[in-house]
């Protein structure tokens, strides 16, 4: 295992900002992960697992930690006693490669999560979701390495405590866990999830009433390419904020002031309000730019970095957006992205 010092993290994140990691190393094997944990312990520093950096903003001062870039690879396919297929993928596998392979095998389950950037290991962390499917709907187990106890173990979905863009891996002791492998349930006779309006419209245009996983993947790919910023072209971490979940009464009040405001039923009797709609129709944020940072012109929920900016400027712009939403609606949006390092 090679450990480097003071490695600038901006190239390792899709927002393309951020200062150095005190130490930086890569894990290609389970032994590398253990060695990195021991190294971190010897230096009395936290171990920070890094995937593709597509959901983090690293501070300009960097991270006082041992950053462990997950580069473990490999996928395996198994069959359950009930005839379902299972794909087991290593944490460092690029997520969309795994999705593409399952779809190419004619297996359904992950196709709605096509084209989401990042690695397999990060998927359970924020329980990635898109177009009516969440990773938690498909995860059978998560294998993790406890950097404190230096032990591997397997977690059930219940133990992962999945929620909307949330899991145990974002909180308390869960932050000490390095996800090493994830298993997902797949099916040949999988019922496609097509309720999401954009997908339904795409399939209707194609006159396709019986879509295969490959058809759904094509639909999702086309929709995402048309709507979302491309991290190869511009700094972005996708949705910067979560969609607010608010009580029914608060939603009714919002509707009185903004009758067109959409809302979708969510767990616990709450209503999920599309923040992109609020940013666009109430706050006038679509395409707004301040120096090197802005809200994307097609999807204002995605803040973008045009180049030459800093993590501080990204943070300042995002705080301005939150405060504006709060001022106009009374809702304070929660961050979907994780800020890493000091921002005070
Ligand atoms: C254009 C664009 C579109 C996006 N669309 C979506 C979307 O539709 N839905 C969605 O949910 N997200 C979306 N995202 C966000 C992002 O792609 C996902 O959150 C993705 O899972 C992050 O993967 P990563 O490898 O880049 O994680 P990173 O950004 O490297 O890490 C994210 C967090 O996970 C932790 N982590 C990473 N690997 C591990 C591991 N092995 N063990 C433990 N912790 C780990 C990190 O410490 C960090 O806290 C989008 C991002 C972009 C840029």
Can you walk me through this structure?
The protein is an alpha+beta fold. The protein has four domains: 4-70, Uridine Diphospho-n-acetylenolpyruvylglucosamine Reductase, domain 2; 75-186, Uridine Diphospho-n-acetylenolpyruvylglucosamine Reductase, domain 3, CATH 3.30.465; 197-225, no CATH class; 235-340, Uridine Diphospho-n-acetylenolpyruvylglucosamine Reductase, domain 1 (Alpha-Beta Complex). It is 26% helix and 26% strand. A hairpin with a 4-residue loop joins strand 15 and strand 16. The longest helix has 19 residues, at 311-329. The chain is globular, with a radius of gyration of 20 Å. The site of flavin-adenine dinucleotide has 34 residues, from strand 3, strand 8, strand 12 and strand 13.
CATH fold-level assignment of the largest domain:
Uridine Diphospho-n-acetylenolpyruvylglucosamine Reductase, domain 3
Number of strands: 20
Order of helices and strands: EEHEEEEEHEEEEHEHHEEHEEHEEEHE
Average of per-residue pLDDT values? 96
Report the β-strand fraction as a percent range: 25-35%
How are strands sequenced across the largest beta sheet?
6-7-12-10-11
How many strands, which pairing sense, and closed or not: the largest β-sheet?
Answer: 5 strands, antiparallel
Number of helices: 8
């Amino acid at each position: 295992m090679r450990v480097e010092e003071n490695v600038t993290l901006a190239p390792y994140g899709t927002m393309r900002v951020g200062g150095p990691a005190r130490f930086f190393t890569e894990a290609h094997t389970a032994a590398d992960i253990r060695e990195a944990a021991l190294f971190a312990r010897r230096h009395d520093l936290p171990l920070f697992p890094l995937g593709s950096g597509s959901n983090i903003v690293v501070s300009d001062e960097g991270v006082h930690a041992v950053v462990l870039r997950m580069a473990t690879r490999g996928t395996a396919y198994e069959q359950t006693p009930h005839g379902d297929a299972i794909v087991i993928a290593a944490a460092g596998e690029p997520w969309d490669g795994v999705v593409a392979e399952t779809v190419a095998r004619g297996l359904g389950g992950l196709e709605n999560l096509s084209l989401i950037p990042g690695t397999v290991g990060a998927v359970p962390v924020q329980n990635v979701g898109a177009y009516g499917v969440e990773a938690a709907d498909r995860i059978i187990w998560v294998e993790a390495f406890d950097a404190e106890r230096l032990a591997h173990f397997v977690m059930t979905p219940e133990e992962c405590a999945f929620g909307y863009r949330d899991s145990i891996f974002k909180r308390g002791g869960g932050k000490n866990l390095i996800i090493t492998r994830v298993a997902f349930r797949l099916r040949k006779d999988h019922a496609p999830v097509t309720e999401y309006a954009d997908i339904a419209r795409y399939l209707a245009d194609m006159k396709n009433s019986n879509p295969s996983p490959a058809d759904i993947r094509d639909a999702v790919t086309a929709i995402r390419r048309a709507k979302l910023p491309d991290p190869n072209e511009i700094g972005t971490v996708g949705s910067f904020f979560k969609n607010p979940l608010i009580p029914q009464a608060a939603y009714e009040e919002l509707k009185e002031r903004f009758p067109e405001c959409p809302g979708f039923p969510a767990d616990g009797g709450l209503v999920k309000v599309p923040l992109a709609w609020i940013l666009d129709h109430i706050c006038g944020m679509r395409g707004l730019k301040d120096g090197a940072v802005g809200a994307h012109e097609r999807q204002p929920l995605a803040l973008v970095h045009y180049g030459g900016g800093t993590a501080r400027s990204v943070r300042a712009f995002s705080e301005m957006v939150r405060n504006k939403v709060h001022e106009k609606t009374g809702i304070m949006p929660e961050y979907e992205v994780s800020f890493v390092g000091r921002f005070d």
